[in-house]
Model the fold of this input.
Amino acid sequence: MPIGVFVLAAAVFAQGTSEFMMSGLLARTAADFGVSLGTVGLLTSVYAVGMVLGAPTMAATMGRWPLRRSATTFLALFCAAHIVGALTTDFAVLVATRAVAAVANAGFLAIVLAALPRLVGPALVGRATSIIVSGVTVACIAGVPAGTLLGQLWGWRSAFWAVAVVSAVVLVPVSSMVPRDGAGVGAADRSMRSEWAVLGVRAVRSAVIVGVLVNAATFAAFTYLGTVAAAIAGATSVWVPLVLALFGLGSFVGVTLTGRYSDRHGRSIITVGTAGLVGVWALAAITAHTMAGFAAMTLLTGAAAFGVGSALIATIVRTAAPAAPRLAGALATTALNIGAVLGPVVAGVAVDRAQTPVAALWCAAGAAAVAAAIVLVDRARRGPVEDAVGAVAR
Done:
């Protein structure tokens, strides 16, 4: 595996830390700016929307750039946004920096994922994808708790400075070790309109829809994992952060294992995995009255959710890349982030109506059930993927 893939994963670690660390910094940020918790929650919403809109926009505008140039530009912009955010005393400016950071993050991921088939070869896309995605899982395990701890010790700005420093440090190897080519090769003679036509291919469209549903299930449940743990063991219990850490650990294990086999058995992993997700989310809901059972299921759900999610990213990129070399990574990034936006919204409605956070776990099981049904129907009807994609490319 080229060393550049691991360098890019290190950058994704910094970006993943930034994306999720606000959950532990909201109270201190609200107090510093004198705004309500609901208002400071805009920082999370703006980031999510920026990720959804930023991926296709940046892929379209910068997709022809060489990989090193685009990756370096996005990472430098991401770093600068955190420096400005750490220095500002204006909440509106802070919101704007989160939007800029999200767009840079989305653009970075979209360009990097689209480059993988050329960077490592089609046969290793699954393994390379798992390495890139592992940056996010390590961020959940180590980066987010570290950012929360820094915020508790020295204020929320210290967490922003830490992300900026890590990004700046990673910027050096990105600018020197990542290949110059790989992103825009073969894209110059193809219009963006023709690339969007790849969504007319059933294999690509189904993978994108399933990606939205699987990630919606993941974030519907993840948003309320700490609340469920607090309801079982008490808000001050050590089990609350431990449950979140177990989910992060499980996600790392799932991504790592999937990366070893998804290049050869990707379709089987997605078929079995989506069906399995229905069971593990439902079992997590059923066991949510005992701490030991819920903790064990948290580890398992993290592994299953991120394992299937990683396989879906690789499938979207591999299937769409021949016809849409610039948009392939953007489609994967956008699909997952649409799920990350929709999942918590739907789960929030369910939790309010049921008056229990466990309802979020049942929402996750429901979304996974729809995804599994689509996968099974698509597998029964699908023709040769290569012929369909090739027709669009021509």
